Amino acid sequence: MYLISGAECFDPNSRGQLDVLVAGGEVVAMVQPGSLTVDAERIDATGKLLVPGIVDALTHPCGGGGEGGFANRTAEMDVETFVRAGVTAPVGALGTDSIGRSLDVLYGNVMGMRGQGLNAYMLSGAYRVPAPSLTGDIARDIYLVAPVVGVGEVAIADHRGTQPTAQELRRLAAETQLGGILAGEGGTVLIHVGAGDSRLALLREAIEGSDLSPSVLYPTHVNRSTALLDEAADWALQGGFVDITVSTTPELIAAGDITADQALRRLLEAGAPAERITLSSDAGGSLPVYVDGELEGLTAASPDSLPKLLMSLLADHPDLFQLALAGMTRNPASALKLNTAGEISVGGRADLLILDPAADKVDSLMSSGKWLLRGGNYLG
């Protein structure tokens, strides 16, 4: 048993200073400081923040990229990278390349992360429609294969996608939703939105006249442009979730990307419900590197963009901190219908992150009651 004391607790809503008792992989008590007398190891977290482990809704743990040849693929990611970024629930996906990077490889990677302590999930499918699957059937994947919680990222408004029709996307959404209903968890289609002028038009067309809720289609990369952000705000107002990509580069910003803090504020000012906004890292995805206007290579997006954003908001835009935290925890868990992630609650799974604002870093991380990072030291 562990008693974490002295921290400012966010569940992700602010709860003030609490003592949190963990036993058997669960949170068993959240009480006023000093009110518990138990035989447990005490962790003094005075001056630190205790928050839920991050739910990173879009990652590429078996690597991404590949446009331009095999040499342009990013490397597989290791568990330590996620742990040091405070991520307890990475959601793995394929991207453009679903041939050299297969669902079998992704499944093995995700199961390996589970074996090393993370509560990892994965998405079936890829950019392509019809969507590839593990079992030959999307609904069957979600219903029968434990880490699969949805499909994605399916590409629209992007020349690298297979240009699906609204009817094809509607059918895929219905199959995915059915799998989630049967499984009692998951059932969401994560949509990669490219830089094309059609933006979210295909999503609107797919939902219009159907019995599907907008929440089954979950667009990401919505901070590519102000025009796309404005459409994303409307999508959220209609009941959908929208995802901001936190990882970016100066070159992408110069080309029109909106930084995560600016995107979050713009969505809120446009009336988007805060609980419908999420933030993910696109970890493992390829980011171009230019020198004097020439493509020199690629770097990989990193999950540490998420805690870095939280720390910068805490220092410079504190009014956005709690909203961004919910966007990395409770909200993506809700969007992907993950029943045991994204919150700190009595009886809930002990996925806990301790942030140290004074040191501007991730201090410790617990997943299902087990320390994976303690005082900055990786324990894997």
Structure notes:
- The structure is a single chain.
- With 380 residues, the protein is of the alpha/beta class.
- The protein folds into 2 domains: 2-51 and 342-378, Roll (Urease, subunit C, domain 1), CATH 2.30.40; 54-335, Alpha-Beta Barrel (TIM Barrel).
- It is built from 11 helices and 21 strands.
- It has helices at residues 79-84, 103-115, 138-144, 166-183, 201-207, 226-237, 250-254, 260-269, 305-316, 318-327, 330-335, and strands at 2-5, 8-10, 14-17, 19-23, 26-31, 41-44, 49-52, 54-59, 87-92, 121-124, 148-156, 188-193, 217-220, 242-245, 277-280, 286-291, 294-300, 352-356, 361-367, 370-374, 377-378.
- The longest helix is centred in the middle third of the chain and has 18 residues, at 166-183.
- The chain is globular and about 60 Å long.
